[in-house]
Amino acid sequence: MSKTTFTWTLSGSGWADCVVADEHSQAEATASYITDAPEHLLTAVARLVLGEAETRAQFEAEPTAFRWIFYRAGEDAWIRLLGLADRSRHDNTGTEVWSSRQTLDTLARAFDDVVQRHGESEYQDKWHWPFPRTELEVLRTAWRDHTAQRRATSPHPGLLLADDLDDVACTTRTACSVVLGRIPAPCPFGPPALSVRRGAIVVPLGV
Description:
The protein has 207 residues and is an alpha+beta fold. The protein has helices at 37-49, 104-108, 112-127, 133-152; strands at 5-12, 15-21, 26-32, 54-60, 65-73, 76-84, 95-103, 160-162, 176-180, 183-185, 200-204. Helix 1 packs parallel to helix 4 (133-152).
């Protein structure tokens, strides 16, 4: 499963260009500050993590629009990005400009680069609205709770299974090792992340 990158570029006063890409393709969606585009996107992803089967967010590009549709499939999400002639059009009238299947983990962390790239002060200066700190924290909390619940219900108590992840993100914030079969590997948490084979078990030290 290829990893998604999400690049949010503040291109002008009240305008942003969002480039979303995986290993196969990429697309660009334009957003205007006339609606709370970042807040809507983060909220849609948080709701998906919390268990909703389908969520949506929309970017207004005046007069066109870009509609994000997220479908939950276990620990994965199917993402569709539609381009529409205007905001009120039905999905069926839109053009699918990008789609991808991603892990919830990858999707939940996609907006983190925006914080590192712009900082909250620059973001507000160019976007004319404060950085969506509340929505981002809600998403992070939802993901931490989801990960904790998944770990608690694991058939191997105390272990974090990587059975349906290609990359494992740090969830324990402690030193860990990874068991690939019977061969221990170094802790993969922190840059650059180690690609972990399906079926691996991430073992927090001290468990």
